[in-house]
Amino acid sequence: MSYDLIFSLGKKVLTGGRLTFDEALSLTQVEPSDIPLLLGVANKIREEFTGDQVDTCEIINARSGGCSEDCKFCAQSAHYDVAVETYPLLAEETILAAAKKAAVDGAYRFCIVTAGCGMKKDPDFDRILSTIQRIGRETNLNRCCSLGLLEPSHVLALKDAGITRYHHNLETSPTLFPQICTTHTYEDRVTTIQNVKAAGLQVCSGGIIGLGESWRQRVELAFELRRLDVDSVPINVLNPIKGTAFADNKRLHPLEILQTFALFRFILPTKIIRYAGGRERNLGELVPLGFLSGINGMLLGNYLTTQGRTPGDDLNTVKELGLKPLMP
């Protein structure tokens, strides 16, 4: 019976063991009626290894659209005809104002995100460094950024500017990635993560579910993140956007989404598993259940090109479930 499997593997993790690939894959085949049990055990694992604190982060889309990369899910890619706002790097004062708002909202982290392949020969990099430094002087927020592919010199400059964690998603498994993006490689992304870790910074890296991946490929992604020893794992749920290559992708069932969160918690018991984009549209009223299936981090407020809940609503949900948002 699948509930015996759930309790057996849960006990293995709770006593310090690590799931094998085949054990993790077996959790994708549990009977639907046992999914609530899977969520409950994942919640117990979260409680055991990470406690009741929730890592929160607000982001700003500091440079939007016109991206040279052809990621099939992305509204900001120049390869697709999407009605998305496009603009150059925002003024330092505008980004600073967003950071101060994030602090008032109760966010623990603030992340500057830019569209584009990466920072090689990017004329905006020095302005971004200056803005990061100023946020450090005028707020108590932990500072993060997501600027695409980085070389070691970029990483060191960001560290000197005060960045503590760098975000760079793998997006999906290595076996599916070539079908998702052709303008850079999966190995390019791994190299950036390794450059960040080599400099002593934390890494925030996860992916998107609903791209057409199999359960096996979701497990592959989780095991890649475990191999790379990333610190924070954002899990996005695809919002099919008109004009992109994945506009007609079928939405995932809410229980499948929650099962995925639980699966990642079993595989990555000590890490931050972070609620990210797509949760509102795909889970609706079931959003709070994510925090009972292993989630211990979240993005507050809006995303890059889509709206989320208000930060107040997000934090109220966390508190009503007996959890404690981290404070700067």
TrEMBL record:
Domain of life: Bacteria
Catalytically driven reaction(s): (4R,5S)-dethiobiotin + (sulfur carrier)-SH + 2 reduced [2Fe-2S]-[ferredoxin] + 2 S-adenosyl-L-methionine = (sulfur carrier)-H + biotin + 2 5'-deoxyadenosine + 2 L-methionine + 2 oxidized [2Fe-2S]-[ferredoxin]
Ligand binding ([4Fe-4S] cluster): 67, 71, 74
Cofactor mode of binding and number, as noted: Binds 1 [4Fe-4S] cluster. The cluster is coordinated with 3 cysteines and an exchangeable S-adenosyl-L-methionine.
GO biological process, one term: biotin biosynthetic process
Domain Radical SAM core: 49-279
Sequence positions that bind [2Fe-2S] cluster: 111, 144, 204, 274
SUPFAM superfamilies: Radical SAM enzymes
Class in the EC hierarchy, top level: transferase
Co-factor requirement: [4Fe-4S] cluster; [2Fe-2S] cluster
EC number of the protein: 2.8.1.6
Pathway entry: Cofactor biosynthesis; biotin biosynthesis; biotin from 7,8-diaminononanoate: step 2/2
An MF annotation (GO) of this entry: biotin synthase activity
This protein's UniProt keywords: 2Fe-2S, 4Fe-4S, Biotin biosynthesis, Iron, Iron-sulfur, Metal-binding, S-adenosyl-L-methionine, Transferase
Alphabetized Pfam families for the sequence: BATS (PF06968), Radical_SAM (PF04055)
Annotated family: Belongs to the radical SAM superfamily. Biotin synthase family.
HAMAP family linked: BioB (MF_01694)
PANTHER family, A to Z: BIOTIN SYNTHASE, BIOTIN SYNTHASE, MITOCHONDRIAL
Biological role stated in the UniProt entry: Catalyzes the conversion of dethiobiotin (DTB) to biotin by the insertion of a sulfur atom into dethiobiotin via a radical-based mechanism.
Quaternary context: Homodimer.
Name this protein carries in UniProt: Biotin synthase
Naturally occurring in which organism (per UniProt): Lucifera butyrica
